[in-house]
From TrEMBL:
Protein name listed in UniProt: Uncharacterized protein
Superkingdom, natural source: Eukaryota
One Pfam family named in its UniProt record: Ribonuc_L-PSP
GO molecular function: deaminase activity
InterPro entries: RutC-like_sf, YjgF/YER057c/UK114
Source organism: Wickerhamomyces pijperi (Yeast)
PANTHER family to which the protein is assigned, alphabetical: 2-IMINOBUTANOATE/2-IMINOPROPANOATE DEAMINASE RIDA, PROTEIN HMF1-RELATED
GO cellular component: cytosol
Taxonomic classification: Eukaryota, Fungi, Dikarya, Ascomycota, Saccharomycotina
Family label: Belongs to the RutC family.
Length: 126
């Protein structure tokens, strides 16, 4: 049976109507992680820092849920501007040297200040 991961469990501010993740059958399925600063909950202007923050938020979520970045099997990445691709890829490569499967989609976020969002599927030990 699927187990909900709560914002309280991972120690992050979240959204009432969105769960940060669900765990089921040895896998964690995360919601989208954006570039909000994990301490201040503020959004930096530049895509590099937003990417770092999003990946740090994902790392925290996975570690508090019994997994880690090196157990990520699939990433779905959303970016708002094609020109930011090389910057995002440079940061991404530092966090995922094992190169999990990935899809990258260019989108228009409801709030134009957001430049990157990512979700992941990772393994964990039940």
């Amino acid at each position: 049976m699927a187990q909900k991961v709560t914002w309280e469990e991972i120690g992050q501010k979240g959204f009432n109507n969105i769960s940060p993740a669900y765990k089921s059958n040895g896998h964690i399925f995360t919601a989208g992680n954006v570039g909000l600063d994990p301490v201040t909950n503020e959004l930096p202007e530049d895509v590099e820092q937003q990417t770092i923050n999003a990946l740090e938020n994902l790392k925290n979520l996975l570690e508090k849920s019994g997994s880690s970045l090196d157990r990520v099997m699939k990433v779905l990445l959303f970016i708002s501007d094609r020109a930011s691709g090389p910057i995002v890829n440079k940061v991404y490569a530092k966090y995922f040297p094992h190169s999990p499967a990935r899809t990258c989609v260019m989108v228009q976020f409801p709030d134009e200040a957001f430049k990157v969002e990512l979700e992941a599927i990772a393994e964990y030990d039940e």
